[in-house]
Each structure stands twice: as C-alpha cells, then as structure tokens.
Design goal:
The chain has 3 helices and 4 strands; from the N terminus they run ααββαββ. The radius of gyration is 54 Å and the shape is rod-shaped. It is α+β, with helices and mostly antiparallel strands and about 180 residues long.
Length: about 180
C-alpha cells in the first residue's frame, strides 16, 4: 500500500522525529568520562600500592644496611681479637723457651762447675765459666749435648788454666747451637 503525506510542507518539518545523533554522542562522552574516571581511580590505587612497596623496601634496606654495618664491625673486632690472641700465644711460646733452656743448663751443671756468663745471639748461646778440672767441663758438655730437644751441638771454644783466689781452676768457654723455635 502506498502512503501519501497530504500535510503542507511547513507542518511536515515540525513533526519530524528528533535526531538520535546528539544523544548518542552525549552518551558516548559520558561513558568515556566514566571509563577515564574509573581508570584514574584504579591507577591511583596502583600508584599508592607501589609507593607503599617502595617505602617497605627502603625500610628493609635500611635495616639490612644497619645489620651489615654491625656484622662488619663484629668481623673487624673478631680479627683484632684473633690478632691479639695470636700475639699472646706467640709470647707465651717464646716465654717458655728461655725458661726451658735455663732449666736444661741448670740440670746439666756438675757440682764442680760454675758459670760466669751467658750471651745469646739468635740461635747461638755462648757460655763461660770455671771448673775444678777439664773432666768436669767435658761432663758439662756431654750433659748439654743430651738435651736433643733444645740443642743441636755444643762446641768447646776455650779451655785454659786459671787461678781464682789462689785456687787453680779451668776457665772455659762453650758455644751452643740451639734448635729453631724451641728456645
């Protein structure tokens, strides 16, 4: 069926249905603004979460740096204490050497021998003294040679007759080669 509009042309324009385009544009803009607002809200929440993570990480880093400084200080103190202990151990070891050496010399002395001097230079020990006979000097040297843990060798340097307060004696001088680290 055919439709014919018999209204005059002025009236036809007035009765035309309104256009939907401005409504759709407004609706699109409103949806776009809503999506942008939601995106801004979501991103600001994410930024806030990342900032809190950064603050937590910085606090943890500061705590770890403090612990690291403490550990470094403790290691330095430990090394200082170890160095001091090593020094003390060295001194204690060195202290017992001369005592042992003097003990060996004292035990090796026969009754008719007395010492007038001892001079130590490195691993050499020079001993001088007097005895009533050359046999006593030989006994003293034999006794000293028996201390193998401290003495490498005992050599007679001088043995001569002398007089001390009108008593004839044997004046002698010995050189001992001492072992490393023992005395």
């Amino acid at each position: 069926m055919i439709k014919i509009n018999l209204l005059p042309q002025e009236e036809r324009k007035k009765t035309a249905p309104p256009s939907a385009t401005p409504f759709l544009i407004g609706l699109g803009v409103a949806v776009l603004v809503g999506l942008m607002g939601y995106g801004w809200y979501w991103l600001s929440g994410e930024v806030e979460g990342v900032q809190k993570d950064i603050e937590r990480t910085q606090a943890e880093l500061k705590r770890v740096e403090d612990i690291t400084k403490l550990v470094d200080k403790l290691q330095k103190d430990k090394k200082t204490v170890q160095d001091k202990l090593k020094t003390v151990e060295t001194l204690v070891a060195a202290q017992s050497g001369p005592v042992r050496l003097l003990d060996v010399i004292s035990r090796s002395l026969p009754g008719e021998v007395w010492l007038s001097g001892m001079v130590r230079a490195g691993k050499k020990l020079d001993i001088s003294g007097f005895a009533f006979s050359p046999f006593s000097v030989a006994t003293f040297m034999t006794n000293l040679s028996g201390a193998k843990e401290l003495v490498n060798s005992v050599d007679l340097v001088v043995s001569e007759k002398a007089v001390v307060e009108t008593v004839p004696v044997e004046r002698f001088s010995l050189t001992m080669d001492l072992k490393e680290g023992k005395s």
